[in-house]
Design goal:
Blueprint (H helix, E strand, L loop, with lengths): L3 H23 L1 E6 L8 E2 L5 E2 L1 H12 L3 E6 L5 H6 L5 E2 L7 H4 L3 E2 L8 E6 L8 H4 L3 E5 L3 H9 L6 E5 L2 H9 L5 E5 H9 L7 E4 L6 H4 L6 E2 L4 H16 L2 H10 L8
Length: 262
């Protein structure tokens, strides 16, 4: 009997520690991202993450009363890494598409942005199969832009060239190894057109449309069946949309592009 009370007390200490550890884990949100896609996510001169998705993600964590942590991987490795529990949610300018919904679930849409073609200003190119026939179009590997280009253009004789890094697409475009690139418009503006290397290039034609491929908008990818996290994030997303945080941050990074999640 003399040993029983100390043992019970010790058991209570361990139980309390386990409970607090579980709560800590539940209150930490590990976001997975590919950090080479400005203005959505990139690294500043000091090596720190920056961009629209970073700032909105941090605001969502505050609203959800969670602590953000960031885990980097290549864009085409995001879904496998999420499924492998390397992190809890994807926050990397990923559109919620029907194809991706076969593998993972998504939160409600956080914001929307258009997809456009970039080419030399005087090229005369347009985002149509006829105009791009015989041309080489660079896209980010595993992106919805790659899926769109291969679905709508490749069969018409357009060479669709995937890259793991969008910055390499711009390098090859300037070097003449590509004729155009299909990108999310703000990423193309900030990552290329606004830089000296983008001089002489521009968005050509209107934004492309295909809701089935291009998706309903940018959302956070989560593992199938993770309804508790989905509900918690949805509530936080609604809060930062309602209080104007998303709109303010979108204006900061994207200018006057309408990103309203309708």
């Amino acid at each position: 009997m003399k040993l029983l009370k100390p043992l019970l007390a010790l058991a209570c200490v361990f139980a309390s520690f386990a409970a607090s550890s579980g709560a800590s884990a539940a209150d930490t949100l590990r976001f997975g991202l590919e950090a080479q896609y400005p203005p959505f996510e990139s690294k500043g001169p000091n090596g720190e993450l920056q961009g629209l998705d970073i700032d909105v993600g941090n605001a969502v964590c505050v609203a959800a009363k969670m602590t953000c942590k960031w885990v980097e991987t290549s864009f085409d490795g995001l879904i496998p890494a999420l499924q492998g529990r390397k992190f809890d949610a994807i926050n990397s300018a990923m559109n919620a598409t029907e194809q991706r919904r076969q593998a993972i679930d998504f939160t409600t849409v956080v914001y929307r942005v258009p997809t456009q073609l970039i080419a030399k200003r005087d090229s005369g190119l347009l985002p149509t199969p006829a105009s791009l026939k015989g041309k080489r179009v660079g896209v980010l590997q595993a992106s919805i832009q790659e899926t769109f280009a291969k679905t709508h253009w490749e069969s018409a004789g357009v060479s669709v060239v995937p890259y793991q890094d969008q910055n390499q697409v711009y390098t090859d475009l300037v070097a003449g190894r590509l004729d155009a690139t299909l990108v999310l418009a703000p990423a193309g503006q900030t990552g290329f057109l606004s830089k000296p290397s983008g001089s002489g290039y521009a968005f050509v034609g209107e934004p492309v449309r295909d809701d089935k491929i291009l998706g309903s908008g940018i959302a956070y990818g989560i593992r199938k069946g993770d309804t508790a996290l989905r509900d918690r994030l949805n509530a936080a997303i609604a809060k930062v949309q309602a209080d104007g945080t998303v709109k303010t941050l979108a204006t900061k990074y994207l200018g006057n592009i309408d990103v309203t999640a309708k």
